[in-house]
Amino acid sequence: MAQERYQRVGEITAPIYSQDCSVLIMATSILLDTQTGNAMAQIKYKSLSENVVKAIFVDVQCFDVSGNELDGIVDFQYLDLNIGSHNEFGSKTPIKLPDSRTRRIIVKIRKIMYQVGGLKELPENAEWKTVPKQENLIDSLGSPELVEQYIRETSISSKFTPLETDNIWLCSCGEVNSTDEAKCHQCSINKKSDFDNFNKELLIENLNEYRKSQLVKENLVANKKSKIKKIAIITLAIAVLIILTTLIIGFINTQKQPGPDGEYSIIGHRYNTRTGELLDSGTSANTWTFKDMMLCDSGNNSHAPSNTPYKRTGRKIVLEHSINTWAGGTIDTLLLEEDGTLSGVDTNETNKSYYVEIIVVPIH
Ligand SMILES: [Zn+2]
Predict the structure, then answer these.
(1) How far is the CA of 184 from the centre of ligand 1 (A)?
(2) pLDDT value of position 254
(3) How many angstroms separate the most distant Cα atoms in the chain?
(4) Model confidence, pTM
């Protein structure tokens, strides 16, 4: 495997800031070019300024591995930039260091050229400090419930203790913002909310309120579930009641259904078998009596043998013997209608030229 051309021989990843400067130095690396033997500085910056950065001028102090200062660089210029707020830059512009023995560097920004307002020179004695490391919320608040409450009050991105120093504030999400910024550039949380809510007493108070409101919500849900259960039971009971009522009414109706017991008279209509034309109509002078599953003819005419047994199945009445009707034909099956009448078709066995429809009407 071919050796990497650039070998990293020094690195600082903690960002540094100066209260006189709107640009952070995020990280520095020293790379050794294995082909040429040169040491290169790779420096990453981040602008916190709303004012677009067009150029920056930096000094680089160089030290060897034992801390002896070597030749450094004065006024290295990053030119033709167009850097907006919270944008990083510089890491793709390596700086050739004068001494290849360089293993540590100190970078200081000297001047910044802005789009609006032009060149701003930093004071000679501008102090550069490491951006403070934020404490984890769980370490500073001490309980997961308070951390969750802080997150509820601020943002889902909150992980760290918010911190303000000099000209920067560090959001609970970890982003470094300029003090001029009222909202975090990363998570959009309001700076005031981020800091005001980091108050243990307030968080405990709010947590208690939250628990109370959760309890109310849980009770509401439980009541709703109980109501739904009650409604389901009542609905089921009503459905069962309706079914039972329907069955009972059906049973009662069955019981009330007109039976054949009683006296009936016969009305008959005679039709032409071929054409269906009504030939004549008539009413029998005698009556029929249905009683105890027996059919009797009450008249003198022998329309039915005395005491003809019959079977009733539902609405169908089947006579054990065929009976003669008004028209002189025979009938052995009658159909009991809803209104208590009986109907049947009587065929003439001797003369196929007509048939008779009969209706047996109860006499009340
Ligand atoms: Zn944030």
Answers:
(1) 4
(2) 61
(3) 150
(4) 0.61
